[in-house]
Amino acid sequence: IRVQITGNYTAIVKEMSTGGGEYYYRKDVMSRMESFVDEELMGVRVVETSEEDGVFYALAVLDRTRIGSELKSEIEDGIKSVNRLLENADEMLGSGCISGMLADLAQAYSISYEVALKRPLHQVIAPPSSRIHGEMKNTPPMILSRIRKILSRLRIVRVSGDGQMGTVGSTLPKPLVVRVFMTTEGGRMIPVEGMEVHFEQSDGRLIERRITDHNGEASVKVSVRPPERYNTDTGKVVVTLALGKLPDELEGTFPVVYSVFYYGIERDTYPVRLSVVSEAGGSLTRLESKIKRT
Questions:
Q1: I want to staple 201 with a disulfide (CB 3.0 to 4.6 A). Which of 36, 72, 142, 205 is the partner?
Q2: CB neighbours (10 Å) of residue 231?
Q3: Do residues 246 and 254 make contact, with C-beta atoms less than 8 angstroms apart?
Q4: Among candidate residues 207, 235, 236, the one with its CA nearest the CA of residue 220
Q5: Termini Cα distance of the chain
Q6: Is 47 helix (H, G, I), strand (E, B) or coil?
Q7: Three-state DSSP class for 107?
């Protein structure tokens, strides 16, 4: 016996943007999330068979009490796990361990999603006497909203190292330092410890991965690269947050938080092209070849 259940819900997110050296942007998005479960119920027994005019019949029965009891245990265990993970997330939020909190919230969402699919299956199969103890007050959309709320409060700012000068191949005199923090509803800024940040070149190539310290800070020494275009004397380093594995439903909908450093490129020499021509304007290539190049 196979049972198919479908469901969907829509989440509308209002977003904002700010400019300047630190960038935090989101976009208006409407996400429609669909769930589909295709369960095969084991334990079906054929108790009677018959044949009539060449047509064969079989009577199959399902132990509703046993299956309902198994589903009930799975659902109740899932609800307990979700509540425990959310309590842990609250404790981590208070201590500023945002990366660990996001991991617990993501796991809580995954379990709550499974529980949400099993509940209607239990209602269909289990006898009326099989009641679920404990309500799942935190539904999948509510947990997603909570994750979005946390992400919307994360900030990353430059502390020092912007606007330096260096020659190609050298290391900038000072490290690039960023600070990651989270704003509270009361306007406080809580340093985020243990968050992974990526320092990347402007073309996306990774320079280094760093973990923020107790002050929410991370730093890296950067070597000056040749400019991407011959007519520019500026380099750029982009610093982003590594948020870890989040629910797939958040892909493309959560805020992208990053900061940008710029540095100047000092040139030891400048490339030139020299052409030797006669008074009449003709090219003197033989003479050009004798000119010493340095």
A1: 205
A2: 5
A3: yes
A4: 207
A5: 83
A6: strand
A7: helix
Q: What is the pLDDT of residues 45-89, one digit of tens each?
A: 888 999 999 999 988 887 888 888 888 899 999 999 999 999 999
Instruction: Determine the Cα–Cα distance for residues 51 and 57; give it in Å rounded to an integer.
Output: 6
d(CA 32, CA 72): 28
Q: Determine the Cα–Cα distance for residues 280 and 289; give it in Å rounded to an integer.
A: 20
Ranges of H-type helices in the chain: 64-95, 98-125, 140-152, 285-290
Looking at this protein, which amino acid is placed at residue 58?
A
Burial class, 218, CB count within 10 angstroms (exposed 0-12 / middle 13-18 / buried 19+): buried
The model's pTM: 0.65
Mean of pLDDT over the chain: 80
Task: Check the CA dihedral 162-165-169-170 and report its sign.
Answer: negative
How far is it, in rounded angstroms, from Cα 222 to Cα 262?
Answer: 11
Which pair of structure tokens corresponds to residue 39?
């369960």
Cα–Cα distance, 20 to 30 (Å, whole number): 27
* Number of alpha carbons in the 13 Å side-chain half-sphere of residue 67: 21
Burial 95-115 (b: 16+ CB within 10 A, else e): ebbbbbbbbbbbbbbbbbbbb
Q: Which residues contact 40 (CB under 8 A, 6 or more apart)?
A: 1, 2
- What DSSP designation does 283 have? B
pLDDT at residue number 15: 42
Which two three-digit tokens encode residue 132?
Answer: 């679920």
CA distances for 280 relative to 77, 101, 252, 273, 284, angstroms: 93, 77, 64, 20, 11
**Gap between the Cα atoms of 144 and 13, Å rounded:** 11
> Can you tell me the mean pLDDT for 33-48?
66
Q: Does the pLDDT of residue 21 top 60, yes or no?
A: no
